[in-house]
Design a protein that fits this description.
The protein is α/β, with parallel strands linked by helices. The longest helix is centred in the middle third of the chain and has 20 residues, at about 160-180.
Length: about 450
């Protein structure tokens, strides 16, 4: 069992200054101390790993730059005013509060000192946390395929901040159109373009269509929200590439019934503040939403590792970093292949990887080598608007109301916390019966400089 540094805590001492952590760390070592597992990221993979280690003979530290776990599959419902941010998130400290061997730090990780086995915190890495085993589960952001300048005009949907910003933008578009007298500008305000027709793009397109055509239909006097155009754009020949072609075609027809225009084989060539160029055609649109692919976190740079085109770290079959069996990379940050194909960036993949890595660490501590990771695909689910879903589990393929009910059941089951499950179930039932959306709040960002960063003062 590895030796772990023993720390001297002085009651009432002031927080360490930059560099003081190194002086504090160089103290007496103690043979037999529990090994320290550091988990960077409190998403699906990181949280599952932490939970799986809750009763293990290890110390666990979870580091995340936000204080909450986020149920990302339902972010689009926050962005379209169906749910509130608190309905799909839970404080990480609260989730792990009963694990006596686990602590949580709110901090920004900026690097990894592999030789010194330390995770670096702060802009210049002025603070650090030592580890015996490291799990990187830092997720991914949007991939603009070489055009980062498009992010200003086509925001993505990865965080609660993204969702509330998009909700504000969508609702303000209707408010601005209500006051606009010029028909061309009004049409541009009521045109919503979604770039990327994976599950997120499909689900959000359907949700915006229902928001415009149902929830807002009777709320305005100068405009008819039903006239809003929702356009789903995909560069590939069809939508929902992760689903069988026949299910994807049924989903396309379901979107058409909701009033969504679906354009396939139509790559986006430019985006600006007034619209988007799609396959050579300029389309005036004040709201463009990016749902077309992801770019992994900078973890590959931290680890000086080989990465794929999306920045995902290429890992061993046991999800460890080549040459470093003490470092594991999981979730959207990892490039994992099975049957010659990379695993998709889905929550079930990250969750299974998190549980696997926890077991692998315990096996290594027991002197055994873990078997290679194997993903068990339990199926694909998606929804298109109200009361219509699609499901694929092995050879079973299902569409319509029953698939939607199964989609609801699975998402309720995986939500964190009893309160969230009850609230989301109630909101969905209310929306189904009344077509109303109770989270139609336009919130403005705080003034610049009003929020101060929280310093990290708790170290090993």
């Amino acid at each position: 069992m590895p030796k772990t540094k023993k720390q001297l805590i002085v009651s009432g001492a002031s927080p360490a200054r930059a560099g003081d952590d190194q002086r504090v760390e160089h103290t007496e070592t103690e043979s037999g101390a529990m090994p320290h597992v550091v988990i960077v990221g409190g998403g699906f993979g990181g949280l599952q790993a932490a939970r799986a280690l809750g009763k293990a003979p290890v110390r666990v530290t979870v580091i995340d730059r936000t204080n909450h776990h986020l149920f990302q599959p339902l972010l689009y419902q926050v962005a379209t005013a169906a749910l509130s941010p608190a309905d799909i998130s839970a404080p990480i400290r609260h989730v792990l509060r009963r694990q006596r061997n686990t602590r949580v730090l709110l901090a920004e990780v900026t690097g990894v000192d592999i030789a010194g086995k330390r995770v670096l915190l702060g802009e210049r890495g002025e603070r650090s946390i030592s580890y015996d085993y490291l799990i990187i589960a830092t997720g991914a952001g949007q991939n603009y395929f070489g055009h980062p300048e498009w992010a200003r005009y086509a925001p993505g949907l990865k965080t609660l901040e993204d969702a509330t910003r998009l909700r504000r933008q969508i609702l303000l578009a209707f408010e601005a159109a209500e006051m606009e007298s010029d028909p061309d500008r009004q049409r541009a305000l009521l045109t919503f373009v979604l770039v990327g027709a994976g599950p997120t793009g499909v689900e959000m397109a359907g949700a915006i269509a229902e928001l415009a055509h149902k929830a807002l239909a009777a709320d305005f006097r100068n405009i008819n929200p039903h006239s809003a155009r929702i356009i789903l754009v995909e560069a590939a020949p069809r939508i929902l590439l992760s689903f069988p072609a026949e299910l994807a075609e049924k989903a396309r027809r379901a979107l058409n019934r909701l009033g969504v225009e679906v354009r396939t084989s139509a790559p986006v060539e430019a985006v600006d503040e007034n619209g988007v160029v799609i396959a050579g055609e300029y389309l005036p649109a004040k709201t463009v939403i990016w749902t077309a692919g992801v770019q992994a976190s900078p973890a590959g740079h931290w680890l000086q590792a080989e990465v794929d085109r999306a920045g995902r770290v290429k890992v061993n079959p046991d999800l460890s970093l080549p040459g470093h069996p003490e470092i594991f990379v999981i979730g959207d940050t990892a490039h994992v292949e099975e049957n010659g194909q990379p695993l998709p960036g889905l929550a079930p993949v990250a969750m299974q990887e998190g549980r696997y890595v926890a077991r692998a660490i315990l096996q290594r501590l027991a002197g055994r080598e873990p078997a290679p990771f194997h993903y068990v695909n339990k199926g694909n689910l998606a929804t298109v608007g109200r009361a219509w879903g699609l499901l694929q589990i092995g050879k079973l393929r299902l569409t319509g109301f029953l698939a939607w009910i199964l989609w609801l059941t699975v998402h309720i089951f995986y939500l964190i916390g009893f309160r969230n499950r009850v609230l989301v179930l109630f909101q969905w039932a209310w929306a189904y019966l009344t077509f109303q959306r109770g989270a139609r709040l336009i919130l403005y960002p705080e003034r610049a400089g009003s929020r101060e960063a929280m310093p990290v003062t708790t170290l090993d």
